[in-house]
Amino acid sequence: MGAARYGGGVSTEGTASITVAVVDDQSMVREGFSALLGAQKDMRVVGSAADGIDAVDLVRRTDPDVLLMDIRMPRMNGLDATRAVLGMPGERHPRIIMLTTFDADEYVFSALQAGASGFLLKDATAEELAGAVRVVADGDALLSPSITRKVIGDYASRPASRPDPTVLSPLTERELEVMRLVAGGRSNSEIAGELFLGEQTVKTHVSRILAKLGLRDRTQIVVTAYESGLVAVGQ
Question: CB-based burial of residue 90 (10 Å sphere; 0-12 exposed, 13-18 middle, 19+ buried)?
Fold first, then answer.
């Protein structure tokens, strides 16, 4: 396990604090991403796998902080592997970044529901790759406006189900306001400007929303906002 689970950055001893595993059925992707991440001073690659079944075993053996997971793989795909990994016993699990070849991937909504912390295109630069790992290791999520729009579109295309607003009962009115804006793809700084709040105050509200609703990150805030009826498709 990494020296500081979800902590990101470099420890005071200068040792790597973010452990990473790479799962993809293409050897070039596995080797390329592993090399790029292994060159980062604050990261250590603990292993790689070529399919979902081996990915689950890899997580059991190495307990990485961040797992880069391809969606389409033989034997067990990335969605099923994500569910299996996050369903393992224990309270702490790796943050999972789904790897895809295009940002309009049809499995976006399902992957977020399964617990993925976001998406990364396979043609990402070394800087984007390392930045993505640091973001999710720090407990945040990779949820760009384009991905948010895709989540909304996928949700709109699904059979209508009865919203359950009672799941939001622990939240204050201000927290509901913040949740609506997060679901609209706003960043913390944008929310701060719109609500005339300090950015740190917005971060505190987001943290309280996550804690009160038992959610992992902003991706799950978006999904819950639509499933609860707080935000309607087309708003």
Answer: exposed
